[in-house]
Design a protein that fits this description.
The complex is a heterotrimer.
Chain A lengths: L2 E12 L2 E12 L3 E5 L6 H9 L6 E6 L2 E2 L5 H6 L2 E4 L11 H6 L7 H12 L1 H5 L10 H14 L4 E5 L7 H14 L4 E5 L3 H7 L2 E6 L2 E7 H6 L1 H8 L3
Parallel strand pairs in A: 3-8, 3-9, 6-7, 7-8
Antiparallel strand pairs in A: 1-2, 1-4, 4-5, 9-10
Chain B lengths: L1 H6 L1 H19 L3 H32 L6 H17 L1 H16 L4 H10 L5 H23 L15 H10 L15 H22 L11 H19 L1 H10 L2 H28 L6 H23 L24 H7 L3 E4 L2 E4 H24 L1 H18 L4 H27 L5 H16 L4 H24 L1 E2 L6 E2 L5 H16 L10
Antiparallel strand pairs in B: 1-2, 3-4
Helix pairs in contact in B: 3-15, 3-16, 3-17, 3-18, 3-19, 4-5, 4-12, 4-13, 4-17, 4-18, 5-9, 5-10, 5-11, 6-9, 7-9, 12-17, 15-16, 18-19, 18-20, 19-20
Chain C lengths: L4 H11 L1 H21 L3 H5 L5 H28 L7 H18 L4 H20 L7 H20 L4 H4 L5 E2 L13 H24 L1 H11 L1 H6 L4 H26 L2 E2 L6 H14 L5 H21 L3 H15 L3 H9 L1 H14 L4
Antiparallel strand pairs in C: 1-2
Helix pairs in contact in C: 2-4, 4-9, 4-12, 4-13, 4-14, 5-6, 5-12, 6-12, 9-10, 10-12, 13-14, 13-16, 14-15, 14-16
Classes of the chains: A alpha/beta, B mainly alpha, C mainly alpha.
Chain lengths: 234, 515, 354
């Protein structure tokens, strides 16, 4: 299996703060990889560093055989990376349709993909003229994911999709994400270990800005010591 | 409906109180007085809005509090005056100006050339600086020998004040154009263009290699040829062009003046953002200081070029008729005789100040609103106001949008200045007072809200004009014999007070978004 | 020489070596300048006019500016409140002391008491809006309050007291510090005041209260989460700052023959901001360095360039903003690796991510 994304020992600073002190991860094509770790370990920063939103100062990120160092983040995104940020960061002042249209990378992306998107998220079709501010939390999360699907993305970076959602919605979300992984590769940041362990095939644990452990998810599930040590949960 | 009202109870109550306040204020006056005060308020509001709207767009999207915005307003006014009263100077400057710009139109080509450069180390770092210096030397050498017919701020008879006065009286005589002496026009043109091309390439060299595949669109070449061609035409057909401009109808000249001011503003804004503001996005407070510094520099430049005394730009013929049939009593008269004033509801109203300016304000309001709501660019701007990082993560070059919005904002301010030049006059301090007005208007309306900018500006304009009017006629205090006359200092104080009250009631302004 | 005190004295000296050296230099400065001109020490002592007296005057202006800039550094640099109405604190002190001395014939002591009271009131006036408005809105509200004050001072109705747009003139100054006849005394009084303010501020920043103020600047929500009533700490900083600025204003009134209404304008707040930007935001001694650089630069440029000075001034600020982002003191400190190390440790301790 090919490696789609290869992150090699990146160090990222925010202001003077040294946030990532050596994170490495390899993401095989067509897989779901979960980034695990405690609050503030640097998972979100890792996603942002891949996209160049917080450019790493050392180390490099290779995506699809291409070294991303020095590239501007919109150029990186245009290579085919979709980003679903935490806290459901949709555009509140834009309608649902505009939220999707703004993600067009080529003219007509939205028309081309709308059937597929509304098939995944039937709710959104009903809400198409509503402004983002008027959606419920779950609907906003759906929209955030849908937005990342408008353009042809080879890689999806999804940050905390289950955060603050009701259990029913979490299940729906999980279904959607596992369906997505058929066509694209997914890197998932997830606090809820139960969700992560059911979705992902691979895992990487980040602790204090370093990637400390990685492997197959099915091995981790039985490794209670590691879970307890790094994730603090059973 | 009820829900909408309940949700924004404070807002509706505040607006209700304000409306009642203004109705009461109007009822205390004669019809002619309140009509004219209302229209004047709208006029001041419209000019304030032109500054405030650009300011608000820039602050909303870029998070830059551009305190040089008032100075941009002032520069717009002075540029418009120059084109309108001294078209010969304008034509003289047009040629070198356009030739200097031309080299930067090819930035796409420069970027591609840069990718091809295979030098490393010290030379690669020194190259852009050397290029810039070379360009500067060439441009300075050539430009010093470029003949530009201009006024003399030191000599009263040839000062802008005198030219302005003569133009208003219809007695304007432009001085003889200066010929090329030490240098042939062709050499001058080649020199300036070469300087511009070198400078454009050198600036591109400052950027690091991006690895992105760069395509040079035909538009880039077309832009270059158009600009260079017009520049060369202005150079070689100088006298003819001047004669043409002095010959045409003053309405058209006025239109050209406003257009030039706006273009100059857009250019200035673009250059400012891409060279000075851009390195400072990570340090917002420093941007603030930078804009304050730029503002001081701008005022000094204006003083050096146009001098300190105030003067007024004459109104175009369309709004300055005074002869037969004036003041107009009907719209037909107005159209036929181009009257400067019109009789409306017992009051005599100046057409340019009190009708034309508010109308332009309204047109701009609607145009920019449509741009924001209907176009892809508007969509990106609205999204970027909330979360620029996310827009970038979608693969959109936000920086380019930033530059565009900054340029547009400064262009709007310049438009305001150009329009205000015939009504408010030109002075070194016109920008400062307007900036304060605009700031207050924005704080009232909501800092990043575009409709808020309009509402706030109108409120500020109305309040000021009503206070000024009451300063003349006095307010009888109820149950007493005292007639209170607001003094001039109360005019700015009243708007400030309104701002503080509204901010205490609604910390985000009337239409600002609650965080 | 007791063994107990000498280490603390030693560490005090080594920590403040630069400060002590510059203080010594400042103490001998009037005499050295006098000597260069050929004036005797006695002549300098007697306040005879000459270069020495002129240099003292310039230095006094710098000291006053430094006190004023320190007060701004406390609320902006340390506590992180961006205020555009700070000049009101200064001007309130300047005008009040002038009016009390001139129109009400109060003694200097009583005047100071009143200035203190009004300064505290001013601080609460600014502070009252704090729970409602934050960030740039606070800046605008303070700008509004400051502008109203400026306008009131300028208005003709109170012109008998304030001198309206001309400014407050002919304030009777107690003879013992009259800057015309006893400038050297004034010079030393100003130095001592500056020192006192500086050390109080340094103590304040190192105190638990001061550390909470810094925490508020860094992340107010975090400070709140830790259980601090941030409003209280902001008010404390505002009061201290207001009192200091009013003191600087009083000194200004005593020193200058005329108090211009410009001291209440936005421009004067910007001056404070410029000074601490030049020196380094939040560094305290940056305010001292910045005040000196600012005043000397302004003086030098005006002297040699005349009218176009503000043009060059503006250009220099832009260069500083672009290329010296942490100010003179800030950049200096950044150079020393020690600080960076300490910061790293602190960061690890606090586990800060954002």
């Amino acid at each position: 299996m090919d490696t789609l994304l290869d992150v090699q020992e990146i160090h990222t600073f925010i202001g003077q703060y040294h946030i990532l002190e050596g994170v490495s991860l390899g993401v095989p094509q067509g897989s779901i990889t979960a980034l695990l770790g405690r609050n503030g370990a640097g998972k979100t920063t890792t996603l942002k560093s891949i996209l160049g939103l917080t450019a790493p100062r050392q180390g490099k990120v290779v995506f699809d055989g291409r070294d991303l160092s020095g590239m501007r983040s919109f150029d990186i995104a245009a290579l085919g990376i979709g980003y679903v940020p935490e806290h459901r960061a949709i555009f509140r002042d834009l309608s649902v349709e505009e939220n999707l249209k703004i993600a067009e990378r080529e003219k007509g992306d939205y028309t081309r993909k709308s059937d597929m998107i509304f098939d995944l998220f039937p709710d959104l079709k009903r809400l198409i003229t509503l402004s983002g501010a008027n959606l419920s939390g779950g609907q906003q999360q759906m929209l955030a994911i849908a937005r990342a699907l408008v353009a042809d993305n080879k890689l999806l970076l999804i940050d905390e999709p289950s955060e603050g959602l009701a259990p029913v919605l979490i299940e729906q979300m999980m279904k959607v994400i596992s369906r997505l992984s058929v066509e694209s590769t997914v890197v998932l940041v997830e606090q809820n270990f139960l969700v992560a362990s059911q979705l992902a095939e691979y895992f990487v644990i980040i602790e204090e800005g370093k990637s400390v452990k990685s492997g197959m998810m099915k091995d981790l599930v039985n490794d209670h010591e590691t879970i307890h040590r790094y994730l603090g949960a059973a | 409906m009820i829900n909408v009202i309940r949700k924004n109870l404070v807002l509706w109550l505040t607006i209700l109180v304000l409306v009642i306040f203004f109705v009461m204020a109007a009822r205390g006056m004669d019809t002619e007085d309140w009509v004219i005060t209302l229209l004047r308020g709208l006029s001041v509001g419209a000019v304030t809005f032109l500054v405030a709207s650009g300011f608000s767009l820039i602050f909303g999207l870029l998070d830059v509090l551009n305190l040089a915005h008032g100075t941009m307003f002032m520069i717009g006014a002075y540029v418009a005056w120059t084109v309108y009263v001294r078209p010969d100077t304008f034509v003289d400057l047009l040629a070198p100006g356009l030739l200097l710009v031309s080299g930067f139109m090819l930035s796409g080509l420069w970027d591609r050339l840069r990718e091809g450069i295979r030098i490393d180390g010290f030379l690669r770092k020194a190259l852009p600086w050397m290029g810039l210096m070379l360009a500067a030397v060439i441009v300075v050498l050539v430009f010093r020998r470029f003949p530009i017919t201009i006024w003399d701020v030191g000599n009263y008879a040839q000062s802008p004040v005198t030219y302005s006065f003569m133009a208003d009286q219809g007695l304007l005589v432009l001085p003889e154009g200066e010929p090329f002496e030490e240098i042939s026009p062709a050499v001058a043109a080649i020199g300036l263009m070469a300087g511009s091309l070198i400078a454009g390439f050198s600036l591109s060299l400052f950027k690091k290699s991006t690895q992105a595949n760069l395509k040079v669109g035909w538009r880039s070449y077309l832009g270059f040829f158009m600009v260079a061609l017009v520049g060369l035409a202005a150079l070689f057909l100088n006298d003819g062009l001047t004669a043409f401009l002095t010959g045409i109808n003053s309405n058209w000249l006025f239109f050209l003046a406003v257009l030039s001011a706006v273009s100059f503003g857009i250019l200035l804004g673009g250059v400012m953002e891409s060279t000075l503001i851009r390195p400072l996005y990570v340090r917002p407070i420093y941007q603030l200081m930078l804009t304050i510094g730029l503002s001081a520099i701008g005022i000094e430049v204006v003083r050096a070029i146009w001098g300190r005394p105030e003067f007024v730009m004459p109104k175009p013929a369309m709004f300055s008729g005074t002869g037969e049939g004036c003041p107009a009593t009907t719209l037909a008269d107005l159209v036929q005789y181009h009257c400067s004033t019109i009789e409306l509801l017992d009051g005599r109203i100046r057409v340019y100040n009190e009708i034309f300016i508010p109308v332009v304000g309204l047109v701009v309001l609607i145009t920019v609103w449509m741009l924001l709501q209907r176009s892809k660019l508007g969509m990106i701007i609205r999204a970027g106001v909330q979360d620029g990082e996310m827009v970038e993560a979608l693969g959109i070059n936000v920086r380019r949008v930033f530059t565009l919005v900054f340029a547009l904002g400064v262009g709007l301010a310049a438009l305001g200045g150009a329009l205000a030049a015939p009504s408010m006059g030109l002075s070194n301090v016109m920008g400062e007072s307007l900036l304060l007005n605009a700031l207050i208007a924005l704080a009232i309306g909501g800092l990043t809200s575009y409709p808020g900018a309009a509402l706030g500006s109108i409120l500020v304009g109305l309040l000021q004009q009503f206070i000024i009017k009451y300063g003349a006629i006095g307010i009888p205090i109820p149950f007493t014999e005292i007639i209170f006359k607001p003094t001039p200092p109360l005019v700015p104080a009243s708007t400030v007070l309104l701002m503080v009250i509204i901010l205490l009631l609604m910390p985000n302004g009337l239409l600002g978004r609650k965080e | 020489m007791t063994e107990k005190t000498s280490p603390t004295v030693n560490s005090f000296v080594s920590q403040n070596r630069g400060l002590i050296l510059s203080l010594l230099a400042l103490v001998v400065l009037p005499f050295i300048v006098g000597l260069f001109e050929g004036a005797s020490l006695g002549a300098v002592w007697q306040n005879e006019s000459g270069t020495s007296k002129f240099v003292q005057g310039l230095a006094i202006e710098i000291f006053i500016l430094a006190i004023y800039a320190l007060s701004y550094d406390l609320i902006f640099g340390i506590t992180g409140l961006l205020s555009f109405g700070h000049s009101m604190f200064f001007a309130a002190g300047a005008y009040l002391s002038g009016i009390l001395l001139k129109s009400f014939d109060l003694s200097l002591g009583m005047t100071l008491v009143w200035v203190l009271v009004i300064a505290v009131v001013n601080a609460f006036l600014f502070g009252i809006v704090l729970p409602r408005v934050k960030g740039i809105t606070f800046a605008l509200v303070t700008l509004g309050l400051g502008s109203v004050f400026h306008i009131v001072i300028m208005s003709r109705e109170v012109g008998d007291y304030t001198g309206a747009d001309v400014g407050l003139q002919a304030v009777p100054v107690p003879e013992f510090i009259n800057p015309a006849t006893h400038r050297l005394t004034f010079y030393f009084v100003a130095i001592v005041l500056l020192l006192v303010v500086y050390f109080i501020y340094k103590r304040f920043v190192d105190s638990p209260t001061g550390r909470v103020c810094v925490a508020i600047r860094e992340n107010e929500d975090r400070a709140k989460m830790l259980g601090f009533n941030t409003f209280y700490f902001k008010i404390v900083a505002l009061v201290l700052s207001s009192v200091t600025a009013a003191l600087a204003g009083t000194l200004h009134t005593l020193y200058q023959p005329i108090v211009s209404p410009n001291t209440a304008g936005l421009g004067f707040t910007v001056t404070a901001l410029l000074i601490i930007l030049i020196g380094g935001v939040g560094t305290l001694n940056g305010a001292l360095v910045g005040a000196a650089v600012y005043r000397l630069l302004d003086f030098g440029l005006r002297r040699y360039l005349g009218e176009s000075a503000s043009f060059i001034n503006g250009a220099i600020y832009i260069l500083i903003v672009l290329y010296l982002p942490f100010g003179i003191v800030g950049t200096w400190r950044m150079q020393s690796a020690k600080i960076t190390e300490g910061r790293k440790r602190l960061l690890k301790l606090l586990k800060l991510e954002k």
